[in-house]
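REQUEST
  id: r-88c1
  op: predict_structure
  target: DUF1491 family protein
  payload:
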Amino acid sequence: MRLTSDFWVGAHVRRCFAEGAYAVVRRRGAREAGAIFLVVDRLDGTYDLYGPAPQTMLIDADTGGRLFERLQEKCDRETVEARFVREARIDPDFWVVEIEDRNGRAYLDMD
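RESPONSE
  id: r-88c1
  status: 200
  body:
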């Protein structure tokens, strides 16, 4: 069973806080099935960006039906924001969660 985007984002923000990181929902998308992007602020002026993995990848039930891939690594803020501008033209119903972590952890099972 796939978790709703709203539920998954709320749980992920709580997980980040439980691990000692700060996380905030920067953009709310479609409650049921909006795409979710994670921005990891490394607190050194660089960012990692994670987004939905291609649907051709096997979906693991333990992830709530959501798999992520790293789209950018140690990029600048402008690169991240440019991606969101492009994404909004295609599908404006996406979520953005921003996480502050000096070690670059997104707190996904792939970390």
